Amino acid sequence: MNHPDSYRGEEVVVLGLAKSGVQVAKVLHERGALVTVNDKKSREESPEASELEALGISVVCGGHPEGLIHEGVKLLVKNPGIPYSAPPVRQAEELGIEIVTEVEIAYRLCAAPIIGITGSNGKTTTTTWTGVMLEAAGMRPIVAGNIGTPLCQAAQEADPGNWMVVELSSFQLKGTQTFRPRVAALLNIAETHLDYHGDMEDYVASKAKLFANQGPEDTAVLNWDDPVCRDLVPYLKAAILPFSMTEQLMEGVFVRPSFVPDTEDELSRTIVYRSAGGQETEIAAVDSIGLPGRFNVENALAACAIAIAAGADPAGLAAPLAEFRGVEHRLEYVADKKGAAYYNNSKATNSKATTMALTSFRRPVVLIAGGLDRGSDYMELLPVLQERVRAVVLLGETREKLARVAGLAGLETVISVDNEDSAAGTLVRAVREAAGIAREGDVVLLSPACASWDMFKSYEERGRIFKEAVHNL
Fold first, then answer.
1. Per-residue pLDDT at 262 exceeds 90
2. Secondary element (H or E) of residue 36
3. Which of 66, 207, 262, 274 lies 20 to 30 Å from 38 when distance is taken between CA atoms?
4. Which part of the chain is the Mur ligase C-terminal domain (predicted)?
């Protein structure tokens, strides 16, 4: 797309009244575009409408009216979550109108170099952790996108001395054209969002757009343990900086096991960076990392690689590795009740995320799971249910599917919670059911393996209700 300034006097439609939509509308309006914002929610459900109208921006709520998209429209900026099958998007495609997401607009406005981070799991933790590392290195990061400040707002506030650290979804990346991050990181790929993308091919292709416009002076950070990530290597033009939990790389960030002095078989593990010239820096002991779980070691490796690619000194990363305590709704400790520890992992919206959470605990787990049905069979959970889980409490659209997998895993206690009068009431009942079967020494873990939208507005809302229910036990 062209620079936002080029749409002065042209008709632009912004589809979706979320935070990003509001900011995009303001940006384009300030640059003289004739902006119409449209949302299918009613006016009563759209409090942002009044703010935009006060600025002179046209807002249409309550559906997608005929004539919204027409030949005179030059640009459609859509909320990332709105599918390409939505009528206004299909109409724009048929008319050859440019269709982008906020990421493309923000990129055109941003004076700072951008770090783009995507993956099926671990994005928010890795993005936040990278920001902490760059802050410790004095590199003035701005953490934005799906977390923190809306991207368009942050892009206008940034200067060349900042680093923009951006968490990006496949939905956002699918709607990019010229977006070019200085550092691009792909953490992993798991089967998810198939209801939106239709198949894994489109999902992977959308993620891979992160690298599409990079050149040799840019860096691509890849998970070397993920075969889908490695398969992208022949198509990348950027310099590649890999990270690995399992392989001592010729170049990159990896974990090195070594024998502990004065013992015969105990191993210690150290995070190591090896440069292209073969110079090694021992960054920190794995045991010093501030977050539990194998998958958080992987997040730590990714954050180290990203920070190093941006210019941080690897020798200065030990402190932010040790001091970082995580992000809300991501394996978040809530409370102990009658000897059982309760954890909120509401952000786990697919099977792989739940698997990684379960493998973080050596104690028996009572798992609360279930949510929006996106077409997965959840068989990926079978081994970890057999190995780590004592009982499950299930809710949401997927409860029958998950009950089948739990049965195949041989679990004797499988409780299915039917919908109460409210989503909150259903989750509160699930927490009480879990508390009723939890034993001293157990972990009660909310890790749904599903998105929240069948019952809740967001995984954050789901997590907050869970925590409140635990504290009220």
1. no
2. strand 34-39
3. 207
4. 329-450
